[in-house]
Amino acid sequence: MSSVEHLLPIGQSKAFSWQQYLLDSVLAFVGAMLVTGVIFVFQLYPRIPNISIVYLLVVLALASTRGRYAAIFASLVAFLSFDFFLVPPLYVFTINRIEEWIALFVFLVTAILTSQLAVSLRLRAEQASRRERETRTLYDLVRVTNREDEPEHQLHVIAQAIVDVFSSWGVHDCAILQPDASGALHVQASAYQPVEEIRLSSDEKAIASWVMTHGRSMGLYDDESLASTTSARFVQRVVVRITKEGRTVRRSLRLIPLKTGQQVVGVLRLRILDDSSQLTRDERLEEEHEQPNARTAFFWTFLEQASSLIERARLRRENLRIAVLQRTDALRAALLSSVSHDLRTPLASIKAAASSLLQEDVQWDEETKRSFASSIEREADRLNRLVSNLLDMSRIEDGALRPEKEWYMLPELIQDVLGRLKPLLHGRVVQTQVPADLPPVELDYMQIDQVLTNLIENAVRYTPKHSPIEVSAHCEGGQVVISVADRGPGVPPADLDRVFDKFYRVLDGKPNTSHPSGSGLGLAVSKGLVEAHGGRIWAEPREGGGVVFSVSLPLGAMEEVPA
Amino acid sequence: MNKSGAHILVVDDEIEIVRALRRSLTAHGYKVFTASSGEEAFQVTSRHRLDLLLLDLVLPGMSGLEVCRRMRAESNIPIIVLSVKGAERDKVEALDLGADDYVSKPFGMDEVLARVRVALRHVARAQDGTQANFRAGPLQVDFALRRVQLDGQDVQLTPTEYELLKVFIAHRGKILTRQMLLKEIWGPATHARTHSLHVYMAQLRRKIEATPEDPHFIITMPGVGYRFNDEAEEL
Questions:
Q1: Candidate from A89-93, B80-84, B110-114 with smallest mean pLDDT
Q2: Does position B3 have pLDDT exceeding 70, yes or no?
Q3: Which of A261, A374, B121, B126 is buried deepest, with most CB atoms within 10 A?
Q4: Among the listed residues A470, A476, A480, the one whose alpha carbon sits nearest the alpha carbon of residue A542
Q5: Nearest-10 Cα torsion for A322, A326, A327, A333
């Protein structure tokens, strides 16, 4: 998150202080007196009657660099000193000749007009450059925000941008609150604090929801008079006085509605650190759009921009959610169609066998009775496996699947699975090639049992009767690889990866008539289970026909065991 | 072996399962009582002398685990827990609470009957006291001499392996959870050694089993623990 580009702060608009006035006065006085001195020393007046024009240079220079006050002060000083030191009679402010009066008066007016023009020109230039800077800042905000894909990151970027840009106003932290589905406000992003660490006090929550519903900003002050102008109900004395570099600094919170049009999309929570000389700024923030002010206008424009970005982020999030829902819906439909088929098949067999047994007009011999009963048991087992897969699938989807790993011996597990699947195998031979010295593997017995069951069941189901199935295991570079190989029709090379997709069979629209049915869940579940173990599952064509499904599991380092 | 009409209480709220169990158990000579909740089960136990409890873990009202806990506080009647696959945690908890065994739902009737037989036999044996000798098929253990023989050949076991085997034989037929085994072998303060437990088990099997990959004596109960195969004695 720290890689977020920082926006340039806007300059702090200069507040006029007495130091600046003093400096302006000194500069104006010295500038004007310098000119007077030169004219006096070189006796330029009245040799050059229009020599007073030289003062205009000083006035212009001051007007364009220091401002209106310095220029006018210099004009006055020039006017008086010219009269006092240069216009006869010297060292008094009286003037004898009428034309000198006129010249001096015209000079004064010219000087003041010139300074006015120069100053307004300068202000305009400053305004233009500020506008340009503001536009660039807004553009940067959009650019930086668009660079982030995740809505959460976008909010974070916006919060950080607000702090970056308005840090000169005392804004030192910013959080964005948005309502959840039930309308309760939650911190969605924060500039410099992890979201989880922000605890909103109940007062803050109350005020935030007030701001949210009324669309008016509100602050938390320690000042009674200020507080009484806002809603007295929420007066809080949460402002802490802290001393920073020897000055008293006020810390306050400000909750501002984020609006797009008339809709309030969230609440901005600004922490503002004001030193006492800047108290006025706090009040400026209170002004709403209705009374724009050159300086705060940008703040509101910036917020508006941020609001629309936040709203867009929200809409995107909404869209994502809807897309996920739609996908889930499609999957659910596919699941339903495949599962209802898979559930009905064994149910039909069970029903048929049981009702046959119940027939009163037929006397079944012992062997037939047994075969009905064993078919009921077999089909019930099949239903049970299907339900296991469905449960595992939903756990995998919810991310709730956590293998409870322990060290087990693989050969035992493989024998266990084969023993349990005996009814399914119908006497088909399964060859096993498992070295006896295979080290113990850390795994969740139930889950890997399910994986092997699925793989073997698949092999039995999709290969011709009596074709051999081989199960083998071996160690390979810190991993143990378990393989189930068959001599069936194989899998088209293009589909070798896709067979692990959920409902591969169903979504593919393959007719189920030529092949025995399957929910298409088994391999997808196996993949989920194996990956939860940090392992890998893959299929590859087998030399001489058929397909090999392999599962690799990390061996891991086992603690040393003393004998 | 116990055809003397042991009294069995089946506690389950699934009427079909109760009916099937009652039918099969009665056919095998047991006297069957039923209860559909934990509360009802305690009423039955207060009125009748019972030899065994078949207990579903998912019950209305009082949970099966709670029934297990309270029942154990009152008596040491064998308890066999019925529970669905995947709820391994519940099974282990029930066993640690004092249940003797479990059967996974859906179960085969012969499996239930086998577990019932083992549990009843276990009680009978506990009343007999400990033996100095144990023999099961090719396996022979002389506890006085600390000697283990397989097909008449001496088997060299490390002290830990021997202790494990002794615990298994003493509790044969009963499921021993990992916790129980750890406690028996290394004392109560060992939790982190589960991994080595499985390795010791593998070593022990390699020494006493003819086919370690298809063990005959010590059976793994996945996700729960181990059991010494009680039926092995009958060989």
A1: A89-93
A2: no
A3: B121
A4: A470
A5: 160
User: How close is the nearest chain A Cα to the Cα of B217, in Å?
Assistant: 13
Q: Where is the domain boundary, B128, B144, B172?
A: B128
Same domain? For B16 and B79 the reply is yes
- Would you state the pLDDT for residue A138? 85
Amino acid at residue number A137:
T
- The pLDDT tens digits of the residues spanning B6-64 come to 999 999 988 888 998 999 999 999 999 999 999 999 999 999 989 999 999 888 888 88
Of the candidates A384, A404, A407, the beta carbon closest to that of B223 is on A404
Residues 404-433 of A with CB under 8 A from B: 404, 406-409, 411-412, 414-416, 419
CB count in 10 Å sphere of residue B174: 21
Name the fold adopted by A149-294. Answer: Beta-Lactamase (3.30.450)
Those residues whose C-beta lies under 8 Å from the C-beta of residue B80, and which sit 6 or more positions away, are B52, B53, B54, B55, B99, B100, B101, B102, B103, B112, B115, B116, B119
Name every chain B residue with its beta carbon within 8 A of the beta carbon of A436: 212-213
Domain boundaries, chain A: 18-134, 149-294, 402-554
CA B90 vs. chain centroid, Å, equals 15
Q: At what angle do helices A98-147 and A151-166 cross, to 10 degrees?
A: 160
Q: CB distance A411–B212 less than 8 Å?
A: yes
